[in-house]
Specification:
heterodimer, A: 380 residues, alpha/beta, six-stranded mixed sheet, two-stranded parallel ribbon, globular, B: 56 residues, alpha+beta, 1 helix, 23% helix
Amino acid sequence: MKANAHTAILCLTHRCNLNCVYCFEKKDHTHEMSLDVAYHCVDDIVQTQCLRNSKAVNLNFFGGEPLLRFDLIKEVYNYVEEKYPRFDITFFASTNGTLLTEEMKKWFSLHKNNFCLGLSLDGAKDTQDHNRSNSFDLIDIKYFVDNWPNQYFKLTISDYSIRQYASDVEFIHSLGVGINGGDVCVGDYSWDNEQLYQIFAQQLLKLVYFYSTHDSFKNSLFELDLAACTSPRRDRKDCGCGTSLSYYETDGNKYPCTFIAPMGFPRHDLQEMLATDFNNQALFTDRSCREKCYLFNICRTCAAENYLLNKRFDVYNKRNCGLKKIIALAVAELQALRIAKNPHVYSDVKVYHTIEAIKTIKELYWPEFGKYFLEETENP
Amino acid sequence: MKRVGVIYCFSRMFNSQLMEKLSLIQSSVKSEESSVYEASSTTLCGNGPTSCQNQW
């Protein structure tokens, strides 16, 4: 995906052949995007983004499982290629990978230069089968690695797989790919208890030492820019919902993101949310966090999730604060090791401020959360 | 017979040797102390934050 491009998501179907343990979507068989609606959405995207805003567009096919509508994917692709050849539009579909036929593989391989398939894979067989409906053996993982070697796999953590997160991450890296591995805190269970803190911290610790000797492997969970903690705190909106992101439901209606949509909220909540000015960062800023929290500038927070919990965008979900501080400690240790190994890993200004942040994170959070990283050893 | 027990020891994290080395490195770039760090982008705006279930 191109940085700074507008991401436009088309929901082709609500149907899915899997039933993942953390899935929030209401699956049904009554919502399908028609060809006419899909064309209308593409026209709107080109009009609003390419023409009015001179933006490149990532056109993202979403579901349900989008490959259930391979017919529509091909039609939309051909429509864009024929009608809008001069615009910078690239294609993406996130998939569970279980439905790829030989015909699909040939088609996607033929168009892989501007069409990327992103695979959701939670780890090795045990994890994948538990989280994602016994699907491990149905996926031709090598096909994805061979065709899109730079595309990260999407790894989501459940309360089951959190116990083997490190080995799942290492499994995926052993395939030669990076990981978008930060989908923690999703699903219908509590993530703010000490038992999970302990389990997750131990997994992160294993990965800290793994990554400290494997610099080339990428995991988005560890790619926090700690130096940004030292910058002045300004109002900020953490994601692109309603600004650099738009979502088209199967009926063609446009929403700010996949969550702030009928699948995620009842109609009366949605109406109130849609009246918000999504360009106004102040409306998405939790004042108490901005004033008090050292991690504010790097805090990854979901606007929709905040609204779901608090009926407001400007009150963050604070149930994940403990986990975020544990993640910050792990990232601080990893970046400390990297800088110690190679002081020129970043620019001088970034090195200075990263070290400042490492020291502050240790000082602020180690006394309360360090105990979760304690290692168990045998006493001979 | 060897008695086997389980103890907890302090983690290797943030050990004093590592922190001392960082301080030395930071001193070597002390000229940057007064600079304000500007993050290019702290989030994956548009591609969604990590906590977003649907974006990459």
